[in-house]
Amino acid sequence: MGHTLEQFAAKTHDILAADPGPGGRQKVRALVEEVLSDEAFVARHLGDDVPERKILFEDPQLGFCILAHVYQGARESTITARPGPSTARRAGRRS
Fold it and tell me: Whole-structure pTM over 0.90, yes or no?
């Protein structure tokens, strides 16, 4: 079955209104996975003509956004690892 942005936003709203915690976010994650498997939805909202970042929907009541992120080509990260427990373990130190 095809998905519309309006249906996706409404289902997301209903899920988060009923359960704003980790359980609700897990249900939203599953919904996102389902929606992104819909090739027509992806083509409509995440096509080549979409900018790198675009707000598709903003929920006025709960404040969540549905964003399109479409990146073309390879990127290099400018983020470096900050020292912490995980980097200390990789370096052979214990914290």
Answer: no
Name the H helices within the chain: 5-18, 22-36, 39-45, 85-90
CA distance 12 to 84: 35
18-43 in b/e form (b: 16+ CB < 10 A) is eeeeeebeebbeeeeeebeebeebee
Q: What is the pLDDT of residues 39-87, one digit of tens each?
A: 999 999 887 777 778 899 999 999 999 998 877 777 677 766 666 665 5
**Residue 57: exposure state from Cβ atoms within 10 A (0-12, 13-18, ≥19):** middle
| Rounded Cα–Cα distance for residues 62 and 53 (Å) | 21
